[in-house]
Design a protein that fits this description.
There is one protein chain. The chain folds into two domains: 3-86, no CATH class; 94-318, Rossmann fold (3-Layer(aba) Sandwich). The chain has ten helices and eleven strands. The chain has helices at residues 3-15, 20-29, 33-40, 49-58, 66-86, 97-106, 183-191, 198-213, 223-231, 253-264, and strands spanning 111-116, 130-133, 137-139, 149-155, 167-174, 217-220, 239-245, 269-275, 297-301, 304-309, 315-318. The protein has an eleven-stranded mixed β-sheet, sandwiched between helices. The longest helix has 21 residues, at 66-86.
Length: 319
């Protein structure tokens, strides 16, 4: 897919109705030959809209008209390109815990959590957040309401959780883990949040505060090569869960298959939350029956699809 198509698809399928700023920017870039030529000069992995836009915002680009943004992008392109080359799309959206919680809460307790593609590890704290399903079903940690409240609209019949999981061990693997105690790292996290979504930014900042009070163990390295070694360090007194959200899409097909083979060789519960078709051993789910979910992620347990989830955990449609 060329960059013009990539940006047009991003506008129509991912940000339309969610971020007017990014919709305007991406739609306009799709037709802007001069800007597209700059983007095409980057390596393929660096051309994605989320990364380019986050690099711009990291340098100070403010939400606004495309004309103003274009002027900024052209003037700052060398610095933008350097950041795109250095950084990764590491959106660490704690809201995704809302689609993982029903599975986590249904497992034998306590649990040990190992996240691959963990970024700063904010999704390793599902026991520290509060949840509000369908505006009426609330779940809080045992100690009381959390400053992070994750709202999720559901459709379907499986029961909603009544409690958060009991987490006794947590760790993550990432090629370039982000330390929540590092100001530049947290600035990058906030730059990755789409404009026009102040609620996401606010909950990210509160989740960072929670993680800073008890920073997670994050292991730097390849998720295939490091998986077994890190899994072997988990406490033996808990059910080990390996999970990931919007991670495998950044791997080529062979690496995805290698990861699936690796995780299946370890006695764990495996929870995946990836775009439909990303894992070729998990049957794709038709979007037509779930039109209220414009960017569906397939939530699967041990390779079996159980639900479609919104990209940021905002919806959960049981299959």
């Amino acid at each position: 897919m060329d960059s013009a198509t990539t940006y047009a698809v991003f506008a129509e399928r991912e940000v339309k109705g969610y971020s007017p700023t990014y919709f305007e920017w991406a739609s306009s870039i799709a037709q802007d030959r001069a800007v597209l030529a700059l983007i095409e000069g980057l390596p393929p992995r660096c051309r994605q809209p989320n990364l380019v836009f986050a690099a711009c915002r990291f340098l100070g680009a403010e939400p606004g008209s495309y004309a103003t943004f274009r002027e900024f992008l052209l003037a700052q392109w060398p610095a933008i390109a350097d950041i795109a080359l250095e950084r990764r799309t590491q959106t660490n959206e704690p809201g995704r815990c809302a689609v993982l919680l029903p599975i986590l809460a249904s497992l034998p307790q306590p649990v040990a959590l190992l996240e691959v593609g963990a970024s700063a590890g904010l999704c390793l704290y599902p026991d520290c957040y509060s949840y509000l399903y369908d505006a009426s079903h609330r779940v809080d940690p045992p100690e009381g309401a959390s400053e992070v409240l994750l709202a999720c609209a559901t459709r379907g019949t499986p029961p909603l959780p009544d409690a958060v999981p009991t987490v006794v061990w947590r760790a993550g693997i990432d090629l370039h883990p982000l330390d929540v105690r590092d100001e530049a790292a947290t600035r990058w996290l906030t730059a990755l949040v789409w404009p026009d979504q102040a609620f996401r930014l606010a909950r990210l900042e509160r989740a960072v505060d929670i993680a800073r009070s008890d920073p997670p163990r994050l292991v730097e390295g390849d998720l295939v090569e490091r998986l077994r070694g890190v899994a072997n360090t988990a406490t033996r007194d808990a059910a080990l869960v390996i999970f990931h959200s919007a991670v495998l899409t950044y791997l080529d097909v062979d690496r995805r298959r290698a990861f699936v083979d690796q995780v299946r060789s370890i006695p764990v519960t495996w929870i995946s939350n990836e775009g439909s078709g990303v894992i070729d051993t998990i049957a794709p789910v038709s979007r037509s029956a779930h039109d209220n979910n414009p960017t569906p992620f397939v939530v699967a347990r041990d390779g079996v699809p159980v639900a479609l989830g919104g990209a940021h955990g905002q919806t959960l449609d049981w299959l």
